[in-house]
Amino acid sequence: VQLVESGGGLVQPGGSLRLSCAASGFSVSSYAMNWYRQAPGKGRRLVATITSAGATINNADSLKGRFTISRDNAKNTVYLQMNSLKPEDTAVYYCNVRLPREYWGQGTQVTVSS
């Protein structure tokens, strides 16, 4: 099992990024997939979930309407579309799955700064 995130980078406030999580060793359509983030000096927090049925859950009111989780079953990849980015969105973003053993990707850095 492997999760590989990509798509992070430096973006100005108000900008957008799309993160990708390419999975191997299992099918993303069969399990709930999660995006977490860890800001500097803070703990890792759940951002969004997409269930095996395709339902999406944003886990913070402040992210609703700005962050959208989705998946492409053919590419076995999960995405996090992030719009209207704010400096407080600066963090390392991680992809996660519980099979039930828990797996994490290596993370991708997102920095929102002018």
General description of the model:
The chain has 114 residues and is mainly beta. The protein is built from no helices and eleven strands. The protein has strands at 2-6, 9-11, 17-24, 33-38, 44-50, 56-58, 67-72, 77-82, 91-98, 102-104, 108-112. The radius of gyration is 13 Å and the shape is globular. The mean pLDDT is 95.
Task: Give the arrangement of secondary structure elements.
Layout: E1 2-6, E2 9-11, E3 17-24, E4 33-38, E5 44-50, E6 56-58, E7 67-72, E8 77-82, E9 91-98, E10 102-104, E11 108-112
Parallel strand pairs: 2-11
Antiparallel strand pairs: 1-3, 3-8, 4-5, 4-9, 5-6, 7-8, 9-10, 9-11
Would you count the extended β strands for me? Answer: 11
Rg for CA atoms:
13 Å
Helix/strand-derived class?
A: mainly beta
| Averaged pLDDT | 95
- Provide a count of the helices: 0
Our measurement of the CA-to-CA distance between the termini, rounded to an integer number of angstroms, reads: 37 Å
What form results from the Cα inertia axes?
A: globular
Structure summary:
The chain has 114 residues and is mostly beta strands. Helices cover 0% and strands 53% of the residues. The protein contains no helices and eleven strands.
